[in-house]
Amino acid sequence: MGNFIPIIIILVVLxxxxxxxxxxxxxxxxxxxxxxxxxxxxxxxxxxxxxxxGQVESIxxxxxxxxxxxxxxxxxxxxxxxxxxxx
Length: 87
Prior knowledge:
Blueprint: H1 4-38, E1 45-48, E2 53-59, E3 63-67, E4 73-77, E5 81-84
Antiparallel strand pairs: 1-2, 1-5, 2-3, 3-4
């Protein structure tokens, strides 16, 4: 029984390190991305994950319609939006 206590302590420390260096920062990035996407408004300029620059034309529950430089309209998922242009 005494041999298992150091192993349990090491496992708990490893989990804590994994949580604070991997899981927690990932959740914080997800929260900031979700709040950025939730705050989008028509007319804002954004950049998608694929590197497409566009202007928001309309926002749906799951997607955003963008107007690109050529005047074409494209629909992208909200998860595909990386950031607002200029941030």
